[in-house]
Amino acid sequence: MLGKSKKPESDKPYTVPQKEEAKPAPPPPPRSAPTASEVKTTIGENISIEGQIKGEEHLVIEGALKGNVELEKHNFTVGLKGRVDGEIRAQNISISGQLMGTIKALGKVEVTKDADFLGDIKAKSISVEDGAYFKGSIELDREPHRKSGFAAAPHRPSSPDAAMAQPSPATDTRKES
Known about the structure:
mainly beta, 14 strands
């Protein structure tokens, strides 16, 4: 009885199931280089630059800059320790340090409470925080479809006496037959 073995029910040979090989996890997608709109360059507080800067990325000044900056489609920031003297052209501009000069922004200018600004600003909008030092002029760009209420209103006399002194337009009361 010990030597007896059971015969398999089918004539097919028994095969050992194969384990699925563990597939390695796909590698993470390659990190793409930041786009120009995300790249930011910082000029450190121990750096001093004299000259003109043109660029295609955001710029932060923590050091000193004497000269003009052109970043037409990008943002410009003067950090807390930054000192800038010149004309700035950029999309949006934020000032937390010192800036003396002219600003021409296509978007918004923000003057924070820590800022020290002396100059002229031309922009679509501006905000000046309470506590900021500001000495200069502001010119806001207008939407082309909006008209000033001053230009649309007819000029009227300021007092009733002045209205009496104004000649009234002549009226023709003749009847024709």
